[in-house]
Amino acid sequence: MRTETTSTDEVSAPPPADWAQARNQVHAAGLAAALPPVERPLAQTDGHTLADPLTPRTDLPAFPTSSVDGWAVRGAGPWRVVGRVLAGGTAAPLTEDGTTVEIATGAMVPAGASAVLRVEESRRTPEGLVDGEPRATPEWRLPGEEATAGEELLPVGTLVDPAVIGLAASCGHDNLRVRRQPRAALLIFGDELLTAGPPGAGRVRDALGPAVPGWLRRYGCRIDPDDVVGPVADTLPAHVAALRAALDEADLVCTTGGTMHGPVDHLHPALAALDADYVVNTVAVRPGFPMLLARTVGPDGQVRFVAGLPGNPQSAIIALVSLVAPLLAGLAGRPLPVLPHAVLAEPVAGRGDHTHLALVRLDRVAGTAHPVRHVGSAMLRGLANADGFAVISPGTTGSVGDRVPIVPLPLLPGERAW
């Protein structure tokens, strides 16, 4: 990336936090307030986070297991058939050379067996014996071949997805200790917003109330329809009352709009009335600069958070990926998400001394990022055609061929983008 001359942007008091620094600060705040572990049945853990390392209760496999259908034999052939062992059964030992038992894939190999002969490579003699040549490579899985009892397979902080659930089941677990999913609420600020029908006559349609809950669920939050409130009246008492009510139930309250200091922007005074302290108050990023994250302590002593999302829709989503995602990772006890990288297929402008998060579509085969159109902070068309944001560092521009970090848009819990 090449350096460009830093432009002069408006600066609020206090100075906005560096974008990368802000991510670290909110993640640390989340870790410090990490939610308590709970025990859940396996089927209810998808999208949660491991609170304990995942370890097998026995060796995997727990016993010698046939890899094929065929014959477990002892000694040289031909062999006399003395029984059968199916999956789920316990095999009697083979005690005499020249004997065999029919065996199914997944069945326990009997003690004393010297080989497993594949059924398709066996034949019957006129005397009813089994004959054939076992392969040199053993046709069974040995105990502990995949893992040994007590071995750490996945660390604390691993996101539970269907693959993890399957592994836990194979390890013999019926329940897992996981971090409780954060409860979220959303407050919509703005008297100018319509909640139904087309925009017009000076009023715009609220696009964040219907959309933000889906993003929060993809980050692992629990948010119900009743947890979305608004539009909240543009008065300070209404803002304070709405925040108090939401914080009684939620670990995280997201608000939309009101993050600046205009005549009807009441979020900052409302946070002051709640004795909240700022983790981050504005971030040097474009779009999305007037985002914030504040922290409160409830009467029960539990730390709760308020994420102030700008009113412009794309800016609000940038606040989600910049502040809310790292916070939720911390609350779940997960590490700060590591950003993947991609190569710019087209140039991307810088934003002076601010980080620029530029909407891009990813070609995952080629590993390239392609800027999309319609990317104004009030627009959603570009967002609907994008996979994430290319990170253009302060004081630089993105040139074709530059390898830059990508902030991916969230997928459903457990889905993997790369």
UniProtKB/TrEMBL annotation:
Pathway of action: Cofactor biosynthesis; molybdopterin biosynthesis
Classification via InterPro entries: MoaB/Mog-like_dom_sf (IPR036425), MoaB/Mog_dom (IPR001453), MoeA-like (IPR038987), MoeA_C_domain_IV (IPR005111), MoeA_C_domain_IV_sf (IPR036688), MoeA_linker/N (IPR005110), MoeA_linker/N_sf (IPR036135)
Pfam families named in the record: MoCF_biosynth, MoeA_C, MoeA_N
Claim: Magnesium is one of the keywords in the record: yes
TM spans (from-to): none
Cofactor: Mg(2+)
EC number(s) from the headed UniProt entry: 2.10.1.1
Gene3D superfamilies: MoaB/Mog-like domain, MoeA, C-terminal, domain IV, Molybdopterin biosynthesis moea protein, domain 2, Molybdopterin biosynthesis moea protein, domain 3
EC class of the enzyme, as a word: transferase
Catalytic activity: adenylyl-molybdopterin + molybdate = Mo-molybdopterin + AMP + H(+)
Domain MoaB/Mog: 185-330
Presence of keyword Transferase: yes
Keywords noted in UniProt: Magnesium, Metal-binding, Molybdenum, Molybdenum cofactor biosynthesis, Transferase
Record family assignment: Belongs to the MoeA family.
Free-text function comment from the UniProt entry: Catalyzes the insertion of molybdate into adenylated molybdopterin with the concomitant release of AMP.
PANTHER family from the UniProt entry: GEPHYRIN, MOLYBDOPTERIN BIOSYNTHESIS PROTEIN
Name the UniProt record assigns to this protein: Molybdopterin molybdenumtransferase
